[in-house]
Specification:
This protein has two domains: about 350 residues, 3-Layer(aba) Sandwich (Rossmann fold); about 120 residues, GMP Synthetase, Chain A, domain 3, CATH 3.30.300.30. The two termini are about 25 Å apart. The protein contains 21 helices and 31 strands. With about 650 residues, it is α/β, with parallel strands linked by helices. The structure holds ligand 6R9. The site of ligand 6R9 has 23 residues, from helix 12, strand 20, strand 25 and strand 26. Ligand 6R9 binds next to helix 12, strand 20, strand 25 and strand 26.
Length: about 650
Amino acid sequence: MSQSHVYPVNPEQASHSLIDKAGYQRMYEQSINDPETFWGEQAEQFLGFFQPWSKVLSGDFSKADVSWFKDAKLNACWNCVDRHLPQRADQTALIWEGDDPADSLPITYRDLHLAVCRLANVLKQRGVKKGDRVCIYMPMIPEAVYAMLACARIGAIHSVVFGGFSPDAIKDRILDSDCQSVITANQGIRGGKVIALKDNVDKALANCPNVHSVIVVKRTNAEVSFKQGRDVWYHDAIDQVDDQCAAEVMDAEDPLFILYTSGSTGKPKGVLHTTAGYLLSAAISHKYIFDYHEGDVFWCSADVGWVTGHSYIVYGPLCNGATSLVFEGVPTYPDASRFWQVIDKHQVTIFYTAPTALRALMSMGNEPVQATSRQSLRLLGSVGEPINPEAWEWYYNVVGEQRCPIVDTWWQTETGASMISPLAGVTDLKPGSATLPFFGVKPELLDADGNIITGAGKGNLVITQSWPSQIRTVFGDHQRCVDTYFTAYPGYYFTGDSARRDEDGYYWIIGRVDDVINVSGHRLGTAEIESALVLHPKVAEAAVVGFPHDIKGQAVYAYVTLMLGVEESDALRKELVAFVAGEIGAFARPDIIQFAPGLPKTRSGKIMRRILRKIAANETDNLGDTSTLADPSVVEQLIANRHNR
Ligand code: 6R9
């Protein structure tokens, strides 16, 4: 990885960017040295409040009890919709582009307001109140955005569950936060394939007795089964309610949403974000990182089921009164030009996607890109995993034709908004580096003993002071929040990532240091996949690790010990892969299953994952210290039978 390869800001970009290098320096320093003044001023600029705050920041990391904009009152939906009506009722808020290139629909801020009010009234009519949790399990259609905003409007807390999750995964998430209503669609369509969303919900709800309301959007003409009294069609329900609905007055620290994410241990965590701080971080980062200007068409290709979709399809862009594109499809359907055709069709100016999509498209050559114009593009973004310099260069040279800066944005579900990223038109770029911290973010690198590394070096990435969209709690388990993020290094937020800092102070994210793997930008806990595998009656024990994969970044390698007497076979391998897909979702399917009569364990019985990772990566000549192994012959056997030669 060449550190010296620098792409300086080109003067043309700099001439129209919102701020310059000195401006960034000034704002950054104020945000760190005097956060209360900085964030108070930004909140006034970016948000509308019904009542001002009494204190900008209180609390600290030790108990993870921070509070931003104490006593202020506002409503996130009102900020994203109503506030814009006087100036931009006729402006397009959302451009929906369907899976079929023939389907698209512009939605103005006026349309958005009416649709959100109607759905909010339906929710109220069906008994949803402020503070209630609502599960949203939707394809990428405008109604998914309406659903999130309708919840925010009435003060309900949405929990969006990605449409690729299985019935069991939906059930776990519904039960964990006691969602009593669900908004879904009869089916979804992606890449020409149908996804049985309502069937999945029905299966999940067989074990969720508290759910009393299911609102079903009719995305296709397919019939689905309905439970009388519980299930209603969206189109019928919105026809019977008023199109005006006052936005609930919410406290700055009232919860806005829960989003489940994988951790290194146990079940997924319900990361909770609150209203004012989250919205402010989403909006300010959207504006400065993407150098957002009036008239831009902004496209974030993520799914609303992940945090990237929350912050950069919905809350950030809409809070700024932008035009945000919602794409239902996939990059390669009907063909590998699809992304670039959508850009031409809607004159997208800012495009934000994941390295895994870029690598997949890069492997198909330049022709599908060059068959399109892309002249509207002026800026590119990347998120979800480290972008390898080859993919960066391809994005820069082939997609952006050396005209568009790339903002490589490092952040997490828990951080709510981008934390380390270039500002387009301000920051000189280095391929593969997320570059410099955003306003209010003070990163440090710590060594294994928790000492701060100064200057260039490598260590565990922590954040030293609160930022507005900091995770507030893990739903229902505050102690887990404290233990996971604020205990390893007291006084710091621990990210779970390691990083390198170069001589210019640029950050290069290396990857997770815990047992979280990143498959195609999807965060998976190895523990979740292991738990799924051991539920299978023929499996005695399982250990899962990630291994490097050209397109996906990382792929899933599972070592499985079968029950005594069970025969190893390819058929069983397939069965286990399908079983994991059923338990979690297709995206969590193991790529490789190696049957392992024994797993490498320490004498105290701990599985030595470090060794399993090396075997999976085919780096078996240097296994490191193996002196604590209870039975070294197990390792020899695993190496002899490895599957990735
Ligand atoms: C936004 C999002 C978070 C984890 C994070 C890190 C990895 C995200 C990255 C990146 C290198 C980037 N990650 N962006 N690594 N460079 N630009 O992806 O949230 O799904 O919670 O994942 O993803 O490892 O810790 P989330």
